[in-house]
Design goal:
five-stranded antiparallel sheet, alpha+beta, four-stranded antiparallel sheet, 11 strands
Length: 750
């Protein structure tokens, strides 16, 4: 591996014009594709294998033309204080609004609240439901404007009017904090690398990689039904790993220059060593993201594959374009320890043969131990204390996980400033909290002798269940073999009481099917959310086993050890549990919610645990691979285990710290998103990187390695012979260099 990447790095350095041209051409091609691609269409949400999905599919088959997946809008009317909607003026305003709502070209149907009796008991609140033939993302601007215009006219008549549903669905905005995150990353790079040019390289390559990835997703969005969250996730992860991978290689390049190597040789060795770590770190991220497909939810699978493709691009750019840009930069990228024009720090000054005239009189002075060396020396002296402090600290942070509640966001989790949230509150106040999450019971009466009697029996059975406010009469299809019944719970959609009611209806349906031959299914958005959460819970353990198992085998080959990969996996579990605890504390308990811009607390997004397991595991292994490979490199070259730990921190701690801060800044930048899902993911990943990089990798890992000593690098002989030699440490490069020196000496003797 190291030898191949060494040659690749030198080739990219020499053929820099060709390499740069290829990446610019790819960026241009992706940009043109994104600009010319049709607008993203519907992003269907399906959960194969669940009862709610089977019911939805049955409706599509038996109720053709009903636009079951079309957008809906609930226009909620509230009369002024002391008045009722049935008053003459108010009723006329509502009737006029309903008339205007039905004139749109994409409207399938509009209900009149006075005809459907959709008026609250006190007569103050009512609603009209508008159904469209296309999804919210496909809805034309003219239809949305007509919807808002009808509401505005009713407001002018003195009514309070709010609009709920997905008809006004908008693309989420990330806010200015995303720019702030990139700015913080730029500052950290300048401080770490000591020059604007060196700092600009990782930023430039990361932006090019993300540009190609996101443009490609945009170009394929319509064909593959990719949602806006997919490109946001790809941008988030692509920026973070793109900057980090480039930083690893540039830092190693500067270290190789400090050893006195010429620039082409330094590039080759940097790509051969740090580049090997980048390849395997990237592989762990790709495994984690692609592994999301085991959950068997198409939306999640597409998100994972798209983000994984962006990571692959980031790895390829780091291995090829960084060497090319280093060739363009020349002397503007200085050796590690050389005097910085920006900060004036200095140490041993060295460069390549081309710069030898500048360094001929440089004194060889012993360098002061850096912060990484001092910290590692402290941990090696006090491993038990550091280990206990780290484990107990993460354990305390993980305590809130015990009260974790899972669900999916609805209009009730929207900011109170939105019309969707205000419509949600009006309906809840006027009709009860369960009105915002009605359950749709679908009956397949094809096998029944008397479908109408079966429908009546289903309705009567449901009325007798606890937690039911009302049951609407059954509605049959034209063939008369399928019916739907709307059930209103007495609890809000995301509550455990509503979940219990769904299970109770399904249990009752099994008895009804046995008695009447009618299959009873529960669907609707609320039931779909419940089934989604259950599917995510069921998939967590298999997913964890698959991802951690594959990465464990990969890390055994990288580190040629059993205990080091095991320690890496256990440390990851600590960090992800602590991060989930922090997410619960902020988004469910409400701690620091104002600071994070969380206006409404509630259940944690159902996909959050499995998503964090996948993404955080992949990102955590970045630091593990980069930091521990430097330790193994020192160990295999003869250093004692404890000294190898210190050496690894001497060369890697500064870079890993900078990489972690950059990744945290990029993820934290997405906390400003208007979409609660993106906001939660941004916070969760940022805090997870903090725990993993600064507690697990910087404290627990060196403490465990110091306690294990030589046993950390133990590997059974039979397994050592069976494993391929991936040579992440660059031993092959050293052997080749030694052979070359021996050949030179032999020539001199001759």
């Amino acid at each position: 591996m190291a030898t191949f990447l060494y040659r690749l790095g030198r080739l990219a350095f020499r053929r820099r014009h060709f390499v740069a041209l290829i990446w610019v051409a790819l960026l241009t091609l992706a940009g043109v594709g994104a600009a010319s691609a049709p607008a993203a269409g519907t992003t269907s949400f399906s959960i194969p294998g669940t009862e709610a999905q089977r019911a939805f599919d049955l409706l599509e088959e038996r109720f053709p033309g009903s636009s079951a997946d079309g957008a809906t809008a609930r226009v909620v009317f509230e009369a002024p204080d002391g008045q009722k909607l049935a008053d003459a003026d108010n009723k006329a305003a509502v009737k006029q609004a309903v008339k205007e709502l039905g004139t749109g070209s994409e409207v399938v149907s509009v209900t009149d609240p006075f005809q459907t009796k959709s008026i609250s008991e006190d007569g103050g609140v009512g609603y009209a439901q508008v159904s469209y033939e296309v999804s919210g993302m496909e809805l034309q601007d003219a239809s949305k404007e007509a919807l808002e215009h009808a509401a505005d006219e009713a407001r002018e008549a003195g009514l309070t009017v709010e609009i709920g549903g997905d008809a006004l669905q908008a693309t989420p905005e990330t806010g200015s904090t995303e720019i702030i995150g990139i700015a913080v990353a730029a500052v950290v790079l300048v401080i770490t690398l000591g020059s604007l040019v060196a700092a600009g390289l990782p930023l430039l390559t990361a932006l090019i990689g993300v540009g190609i990835g996101v443009s490609g997703i945009t170009a394929l969005a319509n064909a593959l039904e990719l949602g806006s969250t997919t490109s946001t996730l790809a941008m988030m992860i692509g920026l973070a790993v793109g900057i980090d991978y480039a930083l690893f290689i540039v830092s190693r390049y500067r270290a190789e220059l400090a050893e006195g190597r010429d620039r082409e040789e330094a590039v080759g060795r940097a790509v051969g060593t740090a580049g090997s770590a980048v390849v395997f770190a990237g592989l762990t991220v790709v495994i984690a993201l692609v592994g999301l497909s085991v959950v068997n939810i198409p939306m999640l699978t597409k998100m994972g594959i798209a983000a994984a493709a962006t990571v692959v691009i980031a790895v390829l750019i780091a291995l090829t374009m960084i060497p090319a840009l280093l060739g363009y930069a020349g002397r503007k990228v200085q050796p590690a320890g050389a005097k910085s024009k920006l900060f004036g720090r200095g140490g041993k000054k060295s460069s390549d043969a081309a710069d030898s005239a500048d360094t001929a009189d440089a004194p060889d002075q012993p360098a002061k131990p850096n912060m990484g060396t001092r910290w590692a020396s402290f941990v090696v002296r006090r491993p038990v204390a550091v280990l206990l402090f780290g484990v107990i600290g993460l354990g305390v942070a993980a305590v809130p996980v015990a009260s974790l509640e899972l669900g999916l966001p609805d209009d009730g989790s929207q900011p109170t400033s939105t019309t969707q949230r205000r419509a949600y509150d009006l309906l809840s106040d006027g009709f009860g909290p369960g009105f915002n999450g009605p359950l749709m019971v679908v009956g397949d009466a094809k096998g029944s002798d008397d479908p109408e009697a079966a429908a009546t029996e289903v309705g009567d059975e449901i009325k007798g269940l606890d937690g039911v406010v009302s049951v609407m009469p059954a509605t049959f299809n034209k063939a008369g073999d399928t019916f739907t019944i709307t059930v209103i719970p007495d609890s809000k959609p995301s509550s455990t009481q509503t979940e219990d009611l769904v299970h109770s209806i399904r249990d009752t349906g099994a008895d009804i099917e046995a008695a009447t031959g009618t299959e009873v299914l529960v669907s609707g958005s609320t039931a779909m959310n419940i089934d989604f959460s259950q599917k995510m819970n069921d998939a967590l353990v298999p997913y964890l086993a698959l991802v951690v198992g594959l990465a464990f085998l990969l890390l055994i080959a990288v580190f040629r050890s059993i205990l080091v990969p095991l320690k890496a996996a256990l440390g990851f579990l600590l960090s992800v549990l602590a991060a989930l605890g922090a997410v619960v504390a902020v988004f469910q308990w409400g701690w620091l919610s104002g600071l994070m811009g969380v206006e409404e607390t509630g259940p944690i997004m159902s996909m959050m645990p499995i998503f964090m397991v996948g993404v955080v595991f992949g990102l955590a292994m970045d630091y593990e691979v980069f930091l521990v490979t430097r330790m193994r490199e020192a160990y295999v070259h003869g250093e004692k285990p404890s000294q190898a730990v210190v050496t690894g921190f001497k060369h890697g701690a500064r870079v890993v710290t900078a990489a972690a801060v950059i990744m945290m800044a990029v993820f934290a930048g997405f906390i400003g998103s208007s979409e609660s899902m993106v906001k939660m993911i941004g916070f969760g990943l940022a805090i997870a990187v903090f725990f993993d990089a600064f507690v697990v990798r910087m404290a627990i890992v060196p403490a465990v390695l110091a306690l294990l000593g030589k046993r950390a690098w133990w590997l059974p002989r039979w397994l050592d012979r069976a494993l391929p030699n991936v040579d992440v440490e660059g031993e092959g490069l050293r052997t080749a260099a030694a052979d070359e020196q021996d050949d030179d000496k032999e020539l001199v003797r001759v």
